[in-house]
């Protein structure tokens, strides 16, 4: 009888605490305690979430364990929240798995004054090092020569591009942040890349989801959080070594990279009460740039190869355009973009269909808000579903077909529809958008200038994905035939 009483008590308390209040967005019925954790197909969460909008509307709610989540769908609802009402929707929620290890430092996970200072600093420093003093263009083009050599060594035989492309893209962040690149075979580099990969795998595991839904309970059990902590401590140590080295060689009259510049900021802001610049925050900002700036661009390039082998006629047309505008004797330059509308359209369509950050990063309401007739209290997690925007039937002519025509007008000129928001929108807009766009353009045109991609004989291209924070193609092998000696 006691047990029955406890069960009835828990269920009643859960019902009273978690019922949808009047004016709150509707959504699928939730189970007691666990809520809607099992409503979604976790292998394709982004598609399940988009489908639910068909039943409950563009703004609907779900409960993940004890946490309410509002999912925003379609271009109108997402931009109304993130842009028009951006002040209310720009904070990040607390995520137990991260909070315990990163303590809300850096750019991606921080809020308020810390976020403003760190974001402004990172943006202006990337701009200074990337586009100002040391131009990014030669860095990217030089890195291409290394990856081209690596790929040429396969002599058109099948290889898995995953690690090679990851290393290439990670090296651009290394150049900006550490001031140097790594050889692809370097043991330290290989270890760092492996740690990042493991860290991502844990973040997308079901155990991590359970940890975030029931942190008090899960903290007491052995689980993914201990391993996650260990991996991230190792990553922090890696950055700490670089910081130590930079401090020894630091010369305020010659700031070489992001770390030097940050050390300078720590010095300059000493004595200011509201300064958030210190070494722990530096380490987190560096990890943020790696975490957000490596996997994303490299996954997009891996989708690019797959789309080109799936649609060889599009690959040929891109190559023809590059041959006629740039030729074979000089590398591409960002200034060529305006003369390569078809290639530019293809890159944008790869980003749209690749949809690599399918559910965006989570946001949270920082006050009670009214959105599209609903009332959403302060502290509710918001998922601005980018899948529902990049495939929004109201915005795209053929949403589910690879169609570079989405980005070309009748005269064949490049146009960018407003619903193209793979980098999100509003105050939290991706901080690396300019860098990513430059990398994608220069790497993609260089690859197309030098290689023709095809599947290994007898293998058909498969566009299957693995769902995670990023949506990545399942591992595949590809052949890259050099186009000229
Ligand atoms: C945030 C997409 C490359 C740094 C984001 C967000 C998205 C995104 C969707 C979340 C925005 C939001 O919360 O509303 C992408 C895509 C990329 C890419 C599709 C490549 C194709 C990069 C690169 C860097 C970078 C190269 C850095 C060098 C960041 C940072 C944030 C962020 C620091 C957090 C911004 C904040 O919280 O204020 N990105 N990103 N990203 N991205 Fe990117």
TrEMBL record:
Gene3D superfamilies: Cytochrome P450. InterPro entries: Cyt_P450 (IPR001128), Cyt_P450_CS (IPR017972), Cyt_P450_E_grp-I (IPR002401), Cyt_P450_E_grp-I_CYP2D-like (IPR008069), Cyt_P450_sf (IPR036396), Cytochrome_P450_fam2 (IPR050182). It is found in: Membrane. It comes from the Eukaryota. GO terms for molecular function: heme binding; iron ion binding; oxidoreductase activity, acting on paired donors, with incorporation or reduction of molecular oxygen, reduced flavin or flavoprotein as one donor, and incorporation of one atom of oxygen. Its cofactor is heme. GO terms for cellular component: cytoplasm; membrane. Keywords: Heme, Iron, Membrane, Metal-binding, Monooxygenase, Oxidoreductase, Transmembrane, Transmembrane helix. Heme binds at residue 430. One of its GO terms (biological process) is organic acid metabolic process. Its main location: membrane. The keyword Nuclease does not apply. Belongs to the cytochrome P450 family. This is Cytochrome P450, family 2, subfamily AE, polypeptide 1. It comes from Sphaeramia orbicularis (orbiculate cardinalfish).
